[in-house]
Structure formats: C-alpha cells, structure tokens
Amino acid sequence: MSLAPPHRLSHEAIAARIAPIVRRLPMQPPAFALAKLLNRLLLPRLPEDARAALSHRTVQISVTDLGLELRLQLGSGGFMLASVGDAPALRIAAAAPAYWRLLRGEDDADRLFFERALVMEGDTEMGLVLKNTLDAIGPLWGAG
C-alpha cells in the first residue's frame, strides 16, 4: 500500500481561504506585532534625518492577499499603532510574498514597483525617503 504525498497548497490558495476571515478580525494585534518587529529590525538602523521625515505621520501597510490593513506611526519611542482617525500620509500595498522578498533583500522596491507587485500611494516625498532609506540600509532580515 502506498501513501500519496500530502497535498501542499500554494500561497495563493491559502491566502484565498484565510483572507475573508482575516478581513473581519481587528487589525490592531498584527499592527502591534509589525510595530515591535520594526522597532527591533529597522529603528536601530534608521538615520536621524529619515526619523525626522517619517515621524508622526501615518503609514498604512496593506497586505493585499491576506486582507491586512496595518496603520503605524513613528513616534519618539519608536513605531506604534496609528490613531484610528489619522489619515495615512502614505499607503504601501503588496502581497505577502513581495514584502518577504523585500525584507530579505531578494528584490528591491524599484523592481517590485515596476513589476506592479508593490504600490505606493500618497505623499511622494515621504515614499521616496522611506524607499531610499531602506535601499541604503539593505535587507532587514538575513537572506539565505
């Protein structure tokens, strides 16, 4: 008797199954987790001029395939949840695999942008400061 190998679902299939559920959940817990992650990986490497340009402005991170809409601000104590009433100055949208490749340095923001895998909307100057800062810092998560 042979056993068939377990069926492996693609990222797209998994995302399609969980996105309707995720969209109904509160966004504060995953936004809080993202803020903590950025405080650990990005904040110590963030130059003062970039901190000043990004401070007290709301950024919305949209993980399009999972239905996540995470709103953060950079305050004096680091990244934190944005207030509900604060309109985002910048919205960054991509599917989870694109963010993962960017985080690991496997793709850069320019490539993802031109491939339409990453969308930035809102304050162009703020978007450029963020993009150029991330380019200069390099991967936030060890590749390989």
Characterization of the model:
By secondary structure, this protein is an alpha+beta fold. About 45% of the residues lie in helices and about 20% in strands. The chain has helices at about 10-20, 30-40, 50-55, 95-105, 110-115, 125-135, and strands at about 60-65, 70-75, 80, 90-95, 120. The radius of gyration is 17 Å and the shape is globular.
Keywords:
144 residues; alpha+beta; five-stranded mixed beta sheet; 5 strands; 43% helix
What order do the helices and strands come in, and which of them pair?
Blueprint: H1 11-22, H2 28-41, H3 48-54, E1 59-63, E2 68-75, E3 78-81, E4 90-94, H4 96-104, H5 109-114, E5 118-122, H6 124-137
Parallel strand pairs: 1-4
Antiparallel strand pairs: 1-2, 2-3, 4-5
**What characteristic shape results from the CA principal axes?**
globular
Instruction: Give start-end ranges of low-pLDDT stretches.
Output: none
Number of helices: 6
Strand fraction: 15-25%
Radius of gyration: 17 Å
| Helix percentage range | 40-55%
Main sheet: strand order: 3-2-1-4-5
The major pleated sheet works out as: 5 strands, mixed
Order of helices and strands: HHHEEEEHHEH
Helix-strand category: alpha+beta
Mean pLDDT: 89
Distance between the termini: 38 Å
Tell me how many strands there are: 5
Brief summary:
The protein is globular, with a radius of gyration of 17 Å. The chain has helices at 11-22, 28-41, 48-54, 96-104, 109-114, 124-137, and strands at residues 59-63, 68-75, 78-81, 90-94, 118-122. The N and C termini lie far apart (38 Å).
